[in-house]
Fold this protein.
Amino acid sequence: ASVKILFVLIILMATDRISGDPEALQDFCVADTKSSVFMNGRPCLNPSEVSPKHFMTSDLRKPANISGSPLGASTVAASSLNMPGLNTLGMMMARVDMAVGGIFPPHIHSRASEIVYIVEGTVSFGFVES
């Protein structure tokens, strides 16, 4: 019986090790958007080449074009392509513009979070927790 308990404990400890995300090797890995190397995430810039401009984008200031959207909603996204400081942080930002009566389709964010900030108007918002 003790061998079975030991076996179960070993299995439980092992699954904890393989089911989580690996620890980050560094705090920031600013994306080198000019590199042709493709991997999970983008290669890092040399830290001496990193500047404040890598952590900001003006793309979210521009309203999304909702005139051609059948759902009355459209997005403008900020990711490591236009905001290299987001690389390897497991996040992106988006601006969603909605017409009155617009619908934003249900979606998921595996191992991620979503923050909604309403600038103008009223939005009915829901979520499903598993």
Summary: The first strand starts at residue 73 and ends at 78.
